[in-house]
Amino acid sequence: MPICENCNIRFNRYEAEDFFQMEKPLLSYQNVRKHLCGECAVNAIDNREEDVYFETCEKCGKEFDLITEESEFASHFPWYNGTCLRDHWDEKIQCTDCALEELDELE
């Protein structure tokens, strides 16, 4: 059994994955790059820790750090604090550039 890099407790990967999927249904535990138990993985995303969770854009193929990309996306909407990159993942996972491009096409 692996040891969580954050809390140093041994954990079962299947249980960690189940917990993560219940808490973060749009995300995949398989994309967590550190050895984290489910609770620490969820907390890392909630606390906006970089270099923990990575996705691949289904439009352009770019691999990206979710937290870094979400910050980049939000910076394009300084007048609105609630804008989130994941809100634009209805049909496919997208990086900031592709999500912004799609928003421009809608205007």
Structural class based on helices, strands and sheet pairing? mainly alpha
N-to-C SSE string, H for helix and E for strand: HHEEHH
Quantity of strands, as a count: 2
Into which percent range does the helicity of residues fall?
25-40%
> Would you identify the regions where 5 or more consecutive residues have pLDDT less than 50?
none
Average the pLDDT over all residues and give the rounded result. Answer: 92
- Global Rg: 15 Å
- Give the neighbour order of strands across the main sheet: 1-2
Could you state the oligomeric state of the chains shown? Answer: single chain
The N- and C-terminal alpha carbons lie at a distance of 51 Å
What would the principal axes of the Cα set say about the shape?
elongated
- Give the number of helices: 4
Q: Which helices and strands, and how do they pair?
A:
Layout: H1 13-23, H2 38-46, E1 54-56, E2 63-65, H3 66-74, H4 96-106
Helix pairs in contact: 1-2, 3-4
Descriptive overview:
The chain is mostly helical and 107 residues long. 37% of the residues lie in helices and 6% in strands. The protein has 4 helices and 2 strands, in the order H-H-E-E-H-H. It has helices spanning 13-23, 38-46, 66-74, 96-106; strands at residues 54-56, 63-65. Strands 1-2 form a two-stranded antiparallel sheet. Helix 1 (13-23) runs parallel beside helix 2 and helix 3 runs parallel beside helix 4 (96-106). The longest helix has 11 residues, at 13-23. It is elongated.
What is the gist of this entry?
The chain is built from 4 helices and 2 strands. It is mostly helical.
